[in-house]
Recover the amino acids of this structure.
């Protein structure tokens, strides 16, 4: 009898254990649970990666000796001028010879929205290394974009190992990017919001929890294991709330204007360097040389500039110096990044905001002495406001400043100025510093997605590569025979070296050739002032060019060498490619 009772107890015990196992499997063996566990791993690894990145940055800073704020008397003048150029040359070699695709925050937005979240790991980590060289040699850039990229690369490694589908891979990349921001600034909440606000463009419930988990663990590792610290900022209070809110209103609007100048200067500089007839390897060196010349007189603009920001917030600078540093930092940043250097824009925007706010606060204290907060309070708010205006991420700006200061006293003016700056900069310039580069490629990305089907299709996928060309040395009779035989009404024209020199169409023939001029050269009637397309442009962009110029075909050329013919694209090519894409999408959603 006792034996039977024991068997029964054992039977019931095993059955209860089985039920518990089934319950655990049912509750925790789910897709969301798996992603959350992976997010923990990504957070831990990202924290380690950011810690190593910080240590590498410190090491190379010591090697080059170009930390922001160093004394010009420490080195000979030629050292200060040429070290940024040498760093630029190293980056130029890495970028041109080793990196196939350049990344940054804008590159991550493009990757998540348009590339199925497929990140090239080799290129991304080479970009991170290039940023270390740029910043430590004096380049006036920030460390957050490399941090985001390193984190995203960590997430991509996890996704590749697990063979994750596209939707899950987007979450894993976001986890890494959030961890990168969180670990770099010791600001986990800001890391989450930055990814949601800037990279994803919208919040989805199933992605929020993994982002939070990754940010928390990345911050934990970077702060406890590596001791990554942020800025030490004094505490400030609102002295006269009503009077000061009027001042913060003005500061927010000024920050929006400065943010627009910041963005425009960068892209004007990029355009300038793209037109310089210089090999791409040497362009970052030229930009570094220009930055070195600025640093010779104002070394505070070199490198990250954390110490300079702290001094501005601590009321250490004069009005004149802060105004000068404001504009020189914008110029140095634009030269460093626009020439081909690697780095981020968040820290430079915080630097510029600190100088703007500090100068504004100094002026305000001159007119209202003893009745308002010190200039450092305005420098603090200016940091967030300019960041909000350049990135169009007011919530990220508010949170990153709040987490850095750990002080609630200035949260109201900070929120007020950040929102006003965002509104003002958006009114003056519709794109952020990240989306402007995407717009120039023809992408219209809103809320993390391409809003136009045609805008997500590329010229390289629709163009014809097997094309007939004509030599500019041939006579009109040759062109007539070719048009009759091929039934085409337009041909690219090549010079004696096989380079693209123009295009000739039936319209050119009819308007420029008389009946007795059969010996006329094709080069004499060809259109030389060419409209062209590039293989990485979107069909939406090219279609608008067709409409505005009233043309039916465009030669497709290399961006670096516009005389190198790659193919030809016509209206009918675009229509056919669009129809195929529509059919594919209908089939995928059926």
């Amino acid at each position: 009898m006792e034996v039977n009772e024991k068997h029964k107890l054992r039977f019931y015990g095993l059955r209860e254990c089985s039920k518990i196992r089934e319950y655990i499997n049912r509750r925790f063996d789910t897709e969301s649970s798996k992603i959350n566990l992976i997010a923990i791993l990504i957070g831990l690894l990202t924290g380690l990666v950011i810690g190593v990145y910080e240590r590498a940055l410190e090491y190379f800073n010591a090697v080059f000796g170009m930390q922001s704020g160093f004394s010009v008397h420490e080195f000979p003048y030629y050292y200060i001028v040429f070290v940024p150029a040498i760093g630029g040359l190293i980056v130029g070699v890495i970028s041109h010879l080793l990196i196939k695709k350049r990344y940054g925050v804008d590159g991550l937005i493009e990757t998540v929205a348009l590339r199925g979240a497929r990140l090239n790991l080799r290129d991304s980590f080479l970009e991170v290394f290039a940023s270390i060289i740029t910043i430590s040699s004096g380049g006036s850039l920030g460390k957050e974009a490399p941090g985001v990229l390193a984190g995203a690369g960590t997430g991509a490694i996890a996704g590749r190992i697990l063979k994750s589908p596209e939707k899950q891979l987007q979450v894993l990349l976001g986890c890494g990017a959030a961890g990168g921001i969180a670990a770099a600034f010791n600001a986990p909440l800001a890391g989450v919001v930055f990814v949601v606000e800037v990279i994803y463009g919208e919040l989805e419930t199933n992605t929020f929890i993994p982002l939070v988990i990754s940010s928390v663990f990345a911050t934990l590792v970077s702060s406890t294991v590596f001791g990554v610290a942020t800025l030490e900022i004094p505490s400030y209070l609102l002295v006269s709330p009503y009077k000061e809110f009027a001042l913060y209103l003005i500061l927010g609007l000024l920050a929006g204007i400065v943010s627009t100048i910041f963005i425009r200067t960068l892209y004007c500089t990029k355009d300038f360097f793209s037109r310089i007839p210089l090999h791409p390897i040497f362009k970052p060196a030229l930009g570094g040389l220009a930055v070195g010349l600025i640093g010779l007189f104002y070394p505070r603009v070199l490198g990250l500039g954390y110490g300079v920001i702290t001094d501005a917030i601590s009321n250490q600078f004069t009005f004149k110096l802060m105004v000068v540093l404001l504009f020189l930092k914008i110029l140095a940043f634009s030269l460093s990044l626009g020439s081909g250097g690697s780095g981020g824009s968040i820290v430079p925007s915080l630097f510029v905001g600190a100088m703007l706010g500090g100068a504004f606060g100094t002026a305000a204290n001159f007119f209202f002495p003893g009745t308002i907060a010190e200039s450092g309070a305005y420098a603090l708010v200016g940091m967030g406001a300019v960041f909000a205006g350049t990135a169009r991420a007011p919530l990220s700006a508010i949170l990153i400043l709040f987490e850095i200061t750990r002080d609630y006293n200035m949260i109201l003016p900070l929120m007020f100025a950040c929102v006003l700056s965002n509104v003002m900069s958006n009114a003056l310039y519709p794109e952020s510093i990240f989306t402007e580069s995407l717009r120039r490629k023809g992408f219209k990305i809103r809320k993390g997605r391409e809003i136009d089907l045609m805008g997500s299709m590329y010229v390289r996928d629709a163009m014809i590569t097997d094309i007939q060309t004509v030599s500019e040395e041939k006579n009109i009779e040759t062109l007539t025979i070719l048009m009759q035989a091929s039934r085409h009404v337009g041909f690219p024209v090549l010079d004696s070296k096989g380079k693209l020199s123009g295009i000739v169409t039936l319209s050119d023939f009819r308007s420029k050739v008389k009946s007795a001029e059969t010996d006329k050269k094709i080069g004499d009637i060809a259109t030389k002032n060419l409209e062209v397309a590039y293989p990485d442009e979107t069909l939406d962009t090219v279609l608008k060019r067709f409409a505005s110029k009233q043309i039916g075909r465009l030669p497709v050329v290399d961006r670096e060498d516009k005389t190198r013919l790659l193919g030809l694209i016509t209206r009918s090519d675009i229509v056919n490619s669009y129809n195929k894409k529509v059919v594919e999408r209908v089939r995928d959603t059926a």
Notes: The chain is about 65% helix and 5% strand. The longest strand covers residues 500-505. Strands lie at 445-446, 449-450, 470-471, 490-494, 500-505, 553-557, 565-570.
